[in-house]
Design brief:
- This protein is of the alpha/beta class.
- The chain has 2 domains: 191 residues, Rossmann fold (3-Layer(aba) Sandwich); 169 residues, Rossmann fold (3-Layer(aba) Sandwich).
- 36% of the residues lie in helices and 20% in strands.
- The strands form 3 sheets. It has an 8-stranded mixed beta sheet, with helices on both faces. A 6-stranded parallel beta sheet has the order 13-12-11-14-15-16, sandwiched between helices.
- The mean pLDDT is 93.
Length: 389
């Protein structure tokens, strides 16, 4: 059987850590494991003049040089030429592009030509609404109002990762959420028996201030009545020095640890050992929250902001707790409740594990992608006399 090539076009890819990166890698791995489809990943790398090609975890990964970076967006004026060339060179018959980071994903859809294209959109509005982000918000507004709808129309199919994704509700859209490997992320000891560690796992970039880690620090500073509690920050980014300085000003520096990015067994261990995982995001840019389902799969009770896609993942007081976005008092109260009410913590942890198994197991979710790709690849794209362009 001849395997047909799917190009997964994503601005970033592991080893960079993040929800979009993990999602794209899961699709690529599922393609590599299928008998009839084969992946090639087209992504960016900082600097350089030449593209690199390597096999990573059984997947061919092409990294295109990025001349510059605007906020969190890699860009390069030669991408249109490079991307078109690599689509031809690899024999790609279908393009699966990933956004919201503008640029590479949009080009993947536009340059697909006669190939079918699937655009997976991972966010609600990226409007930041933070002090000093006015110029960036105006640019984001123009992109979301003017350019993105055209890219949406150009795509053969859209995938919304949650009901708040900007792709949701469009006639040619389906919803396929992120997921978790429930065989790897497994429950640890009951939450009530764990050390009182509050975990945050995610980006710590200045461009991702909407993640609300500063709100979490202010909330944690209110937990003086739980003196043995510790806050563990897992993730990397240029905002980490600012956050540690804030912890110093709040008088909690000796109770806060920053461990950098964790992957594999180390990340699973962090999830299984924590008494609480908190995701304090402030805006609809948080369209899902991968860390939530990873923690839930580990039987770890979670607290999330009632914003973006988080309320579609967590049902308040059923499998987690929800608090108003940007409210450190409410966040502190929810964390305190889970650290001190052992029966509640164990009940929510067990319910979270059940929800992860029932709704977010990766095997079923990537299986839906393979079905979608196979449907779009019938009949074969072009042919020997009429190839894809």
């Amino acid at each position: 059987m001849t395997r047909r090539t799917v190009a997964v076009v994503t601005p970033y890819y592991p080893p960079k850590v993040g929800g979009v990166e993990h999602y794209a890698a899961r699709i690529a791995r599922a393609l590599a494991d299928s008998p009839d489809l084969s992946p090639v990943v087209l992504t960016s790398r900082p600097g350089g003049l030449r593209s690199t090609v390597r096999v990573e975890d059984g997947v061919r990964v092409v990294r295109l040089p990025a001349l510059l970076r605007l906020s969190n967006t890699p860009l390069d004026p030669l991408w249109p030429l490079r991307l078109r060339w690599w689509l031809r060179r690899t024999g790609a018959e279908l393009v699966n592009a990933h956004a919201p980071v503008p640029g590479l994903g949009d080009l993947g859809v536009v340059l697909a030509g006669r190939r079918p294209s699937v655009l997976t959109y991972h966010a609600g509005s990226m409007h930041k609404g933070e002090p000093g982000t006015g110029a960036a918000d105006r640019l984001i507004g123009w992109y979301e109002r003017r350019l993105l709808p055209r890219v949406f129309r150009r795509a053969t199919r859209l995938v919304a990762v949650s009901p708040v994704s900007l792709a949701a509700g469009r006639p040619h859209a389906v919803q396929i959420t992120p997921g978790v490997d429930t065989r790897r992320f497994t429950p640890g000891a009951p939450a009530s028996t764990r050390a009182p560690v509050v975990l945050y796992a995610g980006r710590l970039d200045r461009s991702s201030a909407w993640k609300g880690v500063d709100v979490l620090l202010h909330a944690f500073a209110r937990l003086n009545d739980v003196p043995d509690a510790r806050l563990r920050l897992v993730g990397g980014g240029d905002a980490l020095p600012d956050l540690l300085a804030l912890a110093q000003r709040l008088g909690i520096a000796d109770r806060v640890t920053a461990e950098g990015e964790l992957t594999g067994a180390a990340l699973v261990a962090a999830m299984r050992e924590a008494a609480v995982l908190a995701l304090p995001s402030r805006t609809e840019a948080e369209s899902f929250g991968m860390a939530l389902v990873e923690a839930m799969a580990c039987g770890t009770p979670v607290v999330g902001s009632a914003v973006g896609g988080i309320p579609h993942v967590v049902t308040d007081r059923h499998d987690g707790l929800l608090v108003p976005a940007g409210d450190p008092v409410a966040l502190a109260g929810a964390v305190r409740e889970l650290l001190t009410d052992h029966a509640l913590a164990d009940r929510l942890g067990a319910a979270g594990r059940r929800r992860a198994e029932e709704r977010y197991d990766w095997d079923g979710l990537t299986g839906r992608y393979l079905e979608l790709f196979r449907a779009l690849l019938q009949p074969p794209c072009g042919g020997p006399e009429e190839p894809c362009s």
